[in-house]
């Protein structure tokens, strides 16, 4: 084929050239959004956006982007636009004042029908119904009833560490904390004794670890990033099928036992069962007004899927946070001594009770500082149903609004010398100097982490038990600073090995 009278190209070559030019223009068009809106950000790579930057890890990338471009940064995951917002006033506007518009988490693909029943991913009135039904599990009265079970798990944690440290070897606190939190979530939420701490290859822990390895970062998701129209055709699973099937079978067995037995349960599963309606209804009923939802009660799929969500989420995030807390104790001996002194003054050598936890003010400041540096999630997200303007910034609908917690919690404007570990940042005097939403480790607004109160009680109870029995120190294998995994959760890539020293009982 003669091109402009100068070059004679075969037809197939010209076709390829036209396709490549078309694809390039297609990519340029998708990547023009933030430039047109005047929002700063890095120059995207055609079709990839900023994905190659994530080789260094999501947390480090967010920190780099915020430090370079400011508190509002426009980026692209492939061709999917994402707005990073770390301005506390904008966070308040979006997550609280405009919550009716930003009710939902952005999901840029078709969910499998089971995922749609989880309180973490449900939308609009369906989410409101699930949230209002499940939330009473975490009232002060219900949490107090869980204390004996948590105390038993804490005692097992102490014995587990004693056994592992007998040989004089370092103890990987990440692994130890994982088995502990699995025991807690199984016993307090489902009345099941799984004994993870005494069984290194426990099936519950094995499947909980595997559950997070779904299809979120698989080939289908990357195709959607590059060609967003495919989101209407590809179904993606949040969690690995084999793991989800295991936990579903566990929940079904627990439900079956409750139907036969006479024991009274006051836990997460029982509350859902009490709200369940056994009459015939669609198992994929996720739309309707709030009154309609309340009239029908929970269906079987909602009971099972929220139970599975609690198994996985309650295990992993809390385990990571407790392990990081032990690391912070080991690398800050002055802080460790202050925590122990307060515990002795409040508990007098006895096991902590529910009422004691609220009196441990320094331990609370310590734990907040742990959460500042090592909040479980790197980002929290919302998606808008309509485009709105916030503080002079226009945000189109359906855009992923992501708050980069790792970067927000290290912003020197709010946190001088941000890498320094200092619990006194959380004295009442110092908190008054910061914007309210500069510290949001569990999220913010009506969709804040539903299990937050249980997680706080569980970790603080464990820390008291641990400090009553041990002191922590770095060992030859302890990384300072810790190398983090590169994904969306804050995890220690190589574990958290520490030296454990037994405390002498008076």
From TrEMBL:
Annotated Gene Ontology cellular component terms: endoplasmic reticulum membrane
Bilayer disposition of the protein: Peripheral membrane protein
Q: Per its UniProt record, what PROSITE patterns does this chain match? A: CYTOCHROME_P450
Q: Which family does it belong to?
A: Belongs to the cytochrome P450 family.
The UniProt keywords, alphabetically, are: Endoplasmic reticulum, Heme, Iron, Membrane, Metal-binding, Microsome, Monooxygenase, Oxidoreductase, Transmembrane, Transmembrane helix
Q: What does this protein do?
A: Cytochromes P450 are a group of heme-thiolate monooxygenases. They oxidize a variety of structurally unrelated compounds, including steroids, fatty acids, and xenobiotics.
| CDD domains in the cross-refs | CYP3A-like (cd11055)
Give the top-rank taxon of the lineage listed in the UniProt record for this protein.
Eukaryota
Q: Oxidoreductase: present as a keyword of the record?
A: yes
Protein's name in the database: Cytochrome P450, family 3, subfamily A
Q: What class of enzyme is it?
A: oxidoreductase
The entry's localization annotation reads: Endoplasmic reticulum membrane; Microsome membrane
Query: Which residue windows are transmembrane per the record?
Result: 12-30
Q: Show the InterPro entries listed in the entry.
A: Cyt_P450 (IPR001128), Cyt_P450_CS (IPR017972), Cyt_P450_E_grp-I (IPR002401), Cyt_P450_sf (IPR036396), Cytochrome_P450_3A (IPR050705)
> Main localisation, per the record?
endoplasmic reticulum
């Amino acid at each position: 084929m003669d091109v402009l009278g100068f070059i004679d190209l075969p037809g197939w070559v010209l076709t390829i050239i036209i396709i490549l030019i078309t694809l390039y223009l297609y990519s340029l068009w998708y990547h023009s959004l933030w430039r047109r809106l005047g929002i700063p950000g890095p120059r995207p790579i055609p079709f990839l956006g900023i994905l190659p930057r994530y080789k260094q890890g999501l947390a480090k990338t967010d920190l780099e982007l915020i430090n370079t471009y400011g508190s509002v940064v426009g980026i692209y995951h492939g061709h999917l636009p994402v707005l990073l917002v770390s301005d506390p006033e904008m966070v308040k506007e979006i997550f609280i004042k405009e919550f009716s518009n930003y009710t939902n988490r952005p999901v840029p693909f078709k969910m499998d029908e089971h995922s749609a029943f989880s309180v973490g991913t449900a939308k609009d009135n369906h989410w409101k119904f699930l949230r209002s039904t499940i939330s009473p599990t975490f009232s002060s009265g219900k949490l107090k009833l869980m204390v004996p079970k948590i105390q038993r798990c804490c005692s097992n944690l102490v014995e587990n560490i004693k056994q592992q440290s007998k040989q004089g070897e370092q103890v990987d606190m990440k692994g130890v904390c994982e088995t502990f939190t699995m025991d807690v979530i199984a016993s307090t939420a489902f009345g099941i004794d799984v004994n993870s701490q005494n069984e290194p290859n426990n099936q519950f822990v094995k499947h909980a670890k595997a559950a997070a390895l779904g299809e979120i970062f698989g080939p289908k998701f990357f195709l959607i990033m590059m060609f967003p129209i495919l989101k209407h055709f590809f179904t993606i699973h949040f969690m690995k099928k084999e793991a989800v099937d295991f936990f579903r079978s566990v929940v079904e067995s627990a439900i079956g036992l409750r139907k036969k037995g006479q024991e009274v349960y006051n836990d997460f599963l029982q509350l859902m069962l009490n709200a369940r309606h056994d009459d015939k209804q669609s198992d994929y009923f996720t739309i309707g007004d709030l009154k309609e939802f309340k009239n029908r009660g929970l269906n079987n799929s909602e009971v099972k899927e929220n139970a599975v969500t609690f198994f996985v989420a309650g295990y992993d995030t809390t385990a990571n946070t407790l392990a990081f807390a032990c690391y912070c104790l080991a690398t800050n001996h002055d802080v460790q001594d202050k925590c122990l002194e307060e515990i002795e003054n409040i508990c007098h050598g006895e096991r902590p009770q529910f009422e004691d936890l609220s009196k441990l003010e320094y331990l609370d400041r310590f734990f907040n500082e742990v959460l500042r540096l090592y909040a479980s999630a790197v980002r929290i997200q919302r998606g808008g149903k309509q485009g709105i303007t916030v503080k002079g910034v226009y945000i189109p609908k359906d855009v992923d609004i992501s708050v980069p917690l790792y970067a927000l919690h290290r912003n020197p404007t709010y946190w001088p010398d941000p890498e320094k570990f200092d619990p006194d940042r959380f004295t009442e005097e110092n908190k008054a100097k910061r914007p309210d939403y500069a510290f949001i480790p569990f999220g913010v607004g009506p969709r804040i982490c539903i299990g937050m109160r249980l997680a706080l009680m569980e970790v603080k109870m464990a820390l008291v038990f641990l400090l009553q029995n041990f002191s922590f120190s770095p060992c030859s294998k302890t990384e300072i600073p810790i190398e983090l995994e590169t994904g969306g959760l804050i995890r220690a890539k190589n574990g958290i090995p520490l030296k454990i020293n037994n405390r002498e009982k008076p």
